[in-house]
Amino acid sequence: MHAILCILLTACLHLTFSQECRQIITVCDESATGTGTRKGDKGDVGAPGKSGNKGSKGDVGPIGLQGASCSLGSLGSELLDKLAELESRIAPSSCSTSARSGRVVLSSGEEAVCDEGWTVFQRRLDGSVDFNQNWNMYRRGFGNMNGEFWLGLDRIYGLTKYKGCRLKIDLWDFEDNYAYAEYSSFSVADELNGFRLHVSGYNGTAGDSMGENGASNDGMQFSTKDRDQDVWSGGNCAVHTNGPFGGWWFRECGYSLLNSGWGRSTGTWSNIIWYHWKGDKEALKATTMKLRCD
């Protein structure tokens, strides 16, 4: 029975939607009420002949009704239980309902990178992806979910639109020292409002280089090399002379540069910076930005 269960579960894994697998199991069980034919019972033994002679063979009984042709019985119930467990693991509705970390296919069919219940929307690792992209690329998203990527402002807006969300930023320097910044309130407006950022409620070990300090990114619209929405009188922060700084919620130009060019700093305000942890001259090696909503 366990071998059959494994075969059926394996088959379900190859279905596009697990609901189809449920339908197959249900139809199979309901077919147990069907009728048909089966082998009849053995006929009666004939009457004995004369003494010493073998009696005549009795007639074969009539063909009976067919039993359940497909019913899985207790196996079907076990299969449905296993399938429910499988669905909860392979198709969570969001990262917050996923027990796994890494690249996950959600029940909506969208892919996401989950990290212990957080949805990752930005990751820098090794400079393999160019973050000096234009407005449309930052809006749609780019990169490789197995490595460096930006999820896309449209999806970040959609994720934070109706829910109370938090932001967590993980930071590593080139000596693999770690620090983090977490914000209790995080959301991004739609494109008509320039994907305006709301971020507040800092807690962490890296210092507040993004929220409610004098150079806050809170309340700022998103800027890219082809769309200047910062308030710096000297030009566009995304194409700063020390940059490129990549797309970001610049004010003028702020203390956080997480989409800047990758690499060790070659001067002041170069490469990936989180000012309140490492200052403006020491670049960071890796970053992860992720959100979690109620």
UniProtKB/TrEMBL annotation:
Signal peptide: 1-18
CDD domains found in the cross-reference section: FReD
Coiled coil feature spans: none
SUPFAM superfamilies hit by this protein: Fibrinogen C-terminal domain-like
InterPro entries (alphabetical): Fibrinogen-like_C (IPR036056), Fibrinogen_a/b/g_C_1 (IPR014716), Fibrinogen_a/b/g_C_dom (IPR002181), Fibrinogen_C-term_domain (IPR050373)
Domain Fibrinogen C-terminal: 86-294
Gene3D superfamilies per UniProt: Gamma Fibrinogen, chain A, domain 1
PROSITE patterns assigned to the protein according to its UniProt record, in alphabetical order: FIBRINOGEN_C_2
Superkingdom of source: Eukaryota
Region (Disordered): 34-60
Keywords: Signal
A Pfam family reported for this protein in Swiss-Prot or TrEMBL: Fibrinogen_C
PANTHER family per UniProt: FIBRINOGEN/TENASCIN/ANGIOPOEITIN
Name of protein: Fibrinogen C-terminal domain-containing protein
Lineage of source species: Eukaryota, Metazoa, Chordata, Tunicata, Ascidiacea
